[in-house]
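hi support,

uploading two proteins for the ticket. first:
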Amino acid sequence: MGSSGFSWTLPDHPKFPKGKTVSVVVLDGWGEANADQYNCIHVAETPTMDSLKKGAPERWKLVKAHGTAVGLPSDDDMGNSEVGHNALGAGRIFAQGAKLVDAALASGKIFEGEGFNYIKECFDQGTLHLIGLLSDGGVHSRLDQLQLLLSGASANGAKRIRVHILTDGRDVLDGTSVGFVETLENDLSQLREKGIDARIASGGGRMYVTMDRYENDWDVVKRGWDAHVLGEAPHKFQNAVEAVKTLRAETKTNDQYLPPFVVVDDSGKAVGPVVDGDAVVTINFRADRMVMIAKALEYEEFDKFDRVRVPKIRYAGMLQYDGELKLPSHYLVSPPEIERTSGEYLVKNGIRTFACSETVKFGHVTFFWNGNRSGYFDATKEEYVEIPSDSGITFNVKPKMKALEIAEKARDAILSGKFDQVRVNLPNGDMVGHTGDIEATVVACKAADEAVKIILDAIEQVGGIYVVTADHGNAEDMVKRNKSGQPLLDKKGAIQILTSHTLQPVPVAIGGPGLHPGVKFRNDVQTPGLANVAATVMNLHGFEAPADYEPTLIEVLEN
């Protein structure tokens, strides 16, 4: 118990029996929106999900998966997979990424912290390099935070600053990169007027340069290393606005996939390579697409590609990107401390747990679910299985991804009788939705639905219970819309494809032969969101949730 009276023991729930196998299925990027031809979930054949929605309406509910429901600053902030899985696993709402950084910048605390003091040592003799996504998308980074960091760093002694920009076009409209670069250039010219040598030094598109994730393709990171650190790239320009405009036109690529470039002076020399004695900050607050470049910047021992030259630098992340790897070891803003997650409680109460996804979402169903923590709580009671994702192709090429393999692993785990909880993430709706390929996304949704069926059939066989939900929207709306909801057209009259997540609610469906027949969704939960799912799942395992968890979504009607 300990002196504080804290106990890991969960009380038994008076109305929910123990001992049922519970499968938790997270459909990634699967929101609820009006039915039209741009709603790939509607267009796709999804008989399993349709049957859950129409077959048992009292066991189907929509919950909030964006904005304040998942700890983001405002309800204009679309959800994402990290904060979504944090909420699903933690059962409570924690201030997240952007919010933490906003608070630290607003209070000025960021400029007094250990991380900033660490990089500040370099300001006298060296250059401060800022590397990150340049947009106001708010998913990985935000332009206004970069602007505050630039002004704060210069006010705190930075004399020479180089910004290394990654163009977006994924969380914001394609083509907006030019405007963001112009805004930044204007800010930097104002700093130069104050005697600070501040310039853009290099760049490239986020999906082709620097921002790979889950060790999918180290070549992406190498292209970034070469441009940002070595000052080498196939394309050289005198300024970044010209670079982005020219590369968009000449290579016919969108913002996401712009090739790497460096900015050079009149003699053709790169204006901002990273050298000994410099400081580097990666400015993104979201972790998944910073971990790989962080490893390249931080680790002495590194074998993923030839770094050629490894400058002696002081490196800090905007946040710590991996709590278990302690990566990076220096960071400007401390992460949310997520303790006492549902996963840890359940394992400590004897719930044997199996979790599985493919590489691109494996971390979500384990690390993020468990409160930004790697590894097992109890290796004797848990098994986590990662199925390698396809690499070297965009996901619309093979939109079925590994849905079938994930479902088969889950089925086998359910039928083995070795596990009480079997948890999976099916990535198709999100990963294929991000490509903007509507036909492929329809195929992806059908594949995810087929995977759900395999899992539910196994639950049927063992007399278990299922919870099917999602982490945020994506595939349910693939077109940009005006204020009245009509699709937006570009100058040529073609629809503007939406590649980002959405603000839509997501489903929670429950059922299975093991579910008490009197169970239904409550109507008295104020604005239910993803964080309410944890207490719900604990109930289905036969336990009461901790008192400070967001309330359960379900109740039992007697008779």
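and the second one:
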Amino acid sequence: MGANTSQVSDLSDNPNLRALVGTESISENDPFWNQLISFTFISPTCSGDSKLLEEIVIPLAKLLIENNPRTGNFCALVRIFLGRTKELKISTECQDQLFIWQAHNTLFMIRCLIKVFIREMSEEELRLQFSYQERAPETGSEDLLEELLSNLVHLIVEVPLLDITYSILFEAVTTLLIVFSYQLFHKDILRDGIMYQHMMKGKCLCLTSRLVKTLLYNFIRQEKCPPPAAHIFEPKAEGGLLYGLASGVASGLWSVFTLGGAGIKAGIDQEPNPLPLSNQSLLLLLVLANLTDGPGWPNAYRQAITCFRNTQDTSALLMEQPHTFQINFNSLYTALCEQQRSDQATLLLYTLLHQNPNMRTYILSRTDMDNLVLPILEILYHVEERNSHHVYMALIILLILTEDDAFNRSIHEVVLKNVTWYTERSLTEISLGSLLILVVIRTIQFNMTRTRVQSEIHQSVNSFFGPNNNVLHHLFALLSKKHNKVLEQATQSLRGRQGDNTALPDYAQDLNVIEEVICMMLEIINSCLCNSLHHNPNLVYALLYKRELFEQFRMHPSFQDIMQNLDTVIGFFSQRLEQAGSDLSVERVQEVIMKGAQALPKDRLKVNPVTHTH
């Protein structure tokens, strides 16, 4: 680009870029390369400028695709970068900002070009672009693409994160993300692609645990973009080129996991991302963790994520685990608590709870679970601002947590005061368990009106009421107990204060809240029974097993209409179980329920028999 390039609009006519993509081969020893990578680029400050940059890069990259087989200039550019990566660590120790700046610029150009290459050609054609070289006879049969990937991984794990290295580390992480973006252009899962094999079986394999650990620590550290003074090549880092150009790739890759859509609804203004390296590192970690196993070899990155241990864990391993390492669980837990507003942090939490038993045990042993649960509940409370996949992940996280009896006991012992984000009514004092029940039921009820996610929500309800989860019992037992306790307190208070004019506690409001929660829960169950009975065998099983919990609600005037369908279902399946015989196993009971769900006439269930409004 050259030292004089300062605006996006200058790029298409820049003589150095024209020479790079042109028809003349340029020797790696030519002073041209030093001039090309010594540019100061004014960062785009809006998405429009970032889009303009991509539009200008595309025709330049297409010219390079056409001419590179004869010139080998792209390979020369890659070799210029590889030559500098060997000295990056020393340059960092010596605070050689000029050297790091030029290395960053080189990688930035490679990344912009590769993004277009991937869009325009197959993996095999991309590999060929890395093989065209007019002058490099001493290199033999070296695979330049694998060398680039290997050097990027080495850069990420070996170069320390400082103000002067922040940008090049960000570029390295983002370039790897772009390399894996081939999946975006294929409907089928890529299991044996060139990039995949290089990362899974090539030179990168030995660095698996170090890469996963470094990406986790990047997420944990939550380092912001350094101030402009630290970037002699980045006059405007925050919200500019560093994040803006990568955001399209990052959000695109994230859509692979969320099946489309971002964490916040379109149209809602967002602040410029102050944590680009942290967020990109987390995205790359999730991409690596979700790569499929290859034909004959497992995903080493997933193995590393599922078996890492706490730094304070000094116990010996029962068996040798590949790619294991140790990391500070307290720091990771803190970062997870602080970052749950983002989809990717929620997905990481789900991944760790689901796949890493060490981390799951640690999280469930914490005495400050409110720090983790409250952000998740806030996500669910603001359900209208989140996409259905983020909401569903949050619900599944709560499902995993509530499978633990100790967790279910402990959350009802944590008393919260003044939950400010809950605005429907003033919650001056409420237990964490009660808040969880209130928010989860409210969330599920809200989503019942959204047909696109009804099946997901109905299935999550079925999971919450599964044989290994006691949520139904805990919910109704607790609600019944609280309802009776408030009634008793109100009665005793009235008897004991005859003639006393002091204000009484607002027991009527407390009763109204409890009855509203009970009603919402019954409405959700009723919706599942009417709309997807065959998808909810666990729910039917729980209704039969804990039928006594509903006795006191049956005669309550607020719940009589809702209870009609529950009584119909309980009566119908009870009769079929009696006909099936006595001493039935759990498996046999579930079989009877599954067959009965297909046989129950739909007209026997009243759709929306509820007159209750909120």
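thanks. also noticed: Residues 30 and 76 are 11 Å apart (CA to CA).
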